[in-house]
Amino acid sequence: MSSFPAMVRFENVGMRYGRGPEVLRDISLSLEPGSFHFLTGPSGAGKTTLLRLIYLAERPSRGLISLFGKDLSGLARRELTPLRRKIGIVFQDFRLIPHLSAFDNVALPLRVAGTPESKLRDNVRELLEWVGLADKLDARPPTLSGGEQQRIAIARAVIAAPSLLIADEPTGNVDDAMALRLLHLFEQMNKLGTTLVIATHNAGLAAGSGRPGLHLENGELTRAPPPAKAGTNQGPTLTVAAS
Amino acid sequence: MKNPAIPFDRGGTARFLPWLVALMVFLAALSLAAVMTLQHALEGWDASLSGSLTVELPPVSIPAPNPKIKTIQNNDAPPAKAGQNNDLAAVLALLRATPGIGNAQPLGRDDVARLIAPFLGNALSPEDLDLPRLIDVRIDAKSPPDLAVLQLKLIAIAPGAVIDDHRLWLDRLFLFARSVQITALVILALIGIVAVLTVMFVTRTGLLVHREAIELLHLMGARDGYIAHQFEREALRLGLVGGIAGLLLSGLALLALGHAAAASAFLGDAVNLVPALHLKGWNWLALAGLPLAAGLVAGLTARLTVLATLVRLP
Lengths: 243, 314
Known about the structure:
The complex is a heterodimer of chains A (243) and B (314). Chain A is α/β, with parallel strands linked by helices and 243 residues long. Chain A is 30% helix and 24% strand. Chain A has a single domain, classed as P-loop containing nucleotide triphosphate hydrolases (Rossmann fold, 3-Layer(aba) Sandwich). In chain A, α3 crosses α4 and α3 runs parallel beside α5. Chain A starts with 7 loop residues before the first strand and ends with a strand. With 314 residues, chain B is of the alpha+beta class. Chain B folds into two domains: 181 residues, no CATH class; 102 residues, no CATH class. Helix content of chain B is 64%, strand content 7%. Chain B has a four-stranded antiparallel beta sheet with strand order 2-3-1-4. The interface between A and B is medium-sized, with 25 and 21 residues.
């Protein structure tokens, strides 16, 4: 266990929706700053719920969660807003705003944070150019292909240079070449200090990255199968408590 | 930002908000116009009657109707025997000598005829009836005479003389007019409450329709005020659009009512009980402010509704 405060820390976290069964049971994990994790598991295992807990879309039914070294149970609701601004999210269903242009969709996190238009314009153009959508600045999402929408979603997640990037199946709708390119973008961000958690069905992508993974099955976290190659970054400190 | 992040044009119920606001501003404008018109009428009645009073002397006994009298008599006062006119002269002298009284003038035959004409027609003349003799008295509103003392003095000179300061009639008229005004103000308040409830309903529906976009903004780190501002701005816009439409409609309705009021003045100015629709400059300003008020109420209600709802998000 690192002596630095963990970027994400779960202690015996359980999660149920309403009076339903527990979707997650006794999850304990600690992700160090600058780490890069793939989260794998079958459909319905609870991957999205785990990610929603990390990006503060849900409060746990039980257990403790710390983000950026802060215990969330001790924070007032309005104190979560600055934490959210440090988290970039790529949703599985993209969640682009259909009536906004590609440019406006990507610029949204900066505008929400109050960045002046003059400062965000070049950054947004540059990023859209980088993901290959320089000629689609004014296009509305419904007119774009699934892959193009996904790239906009990723651009939106990284535009504010988040400390923590959560991605739910970020390469699900792109071809292999674009998947590798996006993976390279994630690698670059990780090298710059961003902590990443990427949920994927693509076992090859996870294994090919050489990153240690988290594996979720039936609401319980287990050690992921060993990576195909040794990772260069520090791996997660993973604790799996008996449920 | 050129476009709001929340796609309001795709929300169903928001489309109806301008129509609802237009209807409410229309009703509010009519109510407000009624309040202000009645206020002017009240002030007019008060001003025209407060500075005057009427002294009634008992009727002189009139001989049997004689058509000839009409051709002979054309003086200021109704015909009367010389002895019976003595009390009139004495009363006039008393009134004119009383401090606080500016003028005292007996009503002439023509004046009396004009007063009874609307009720009895022109077939009868004052000489045909046993009418009290009336003296129109103008008083100084700043230092009016003591009416109780004056009454005693009058009775001493002319037993049966009565002072009518119109207060009873005026009080009843004021009571009625005030009741109408209060009713109109209550209607105005109810319209305001309905407007607030309508905007709350539309906003809550909008929050449901746009919950995904709202959650997205929330997760990006948008403060509640940022999201609420988007709804506030949209509600303000819709409220203004609806309010202006409602004001234009009410303007047409008020013009039509103004013509109707003028047409109803068939009894002539002296007995016109329907207040004419005379609005002053600031009254029109108040009416013109209704769309702005509607927009502000809509915007503020939307903001507070959104803020109250967003608290439930984690």
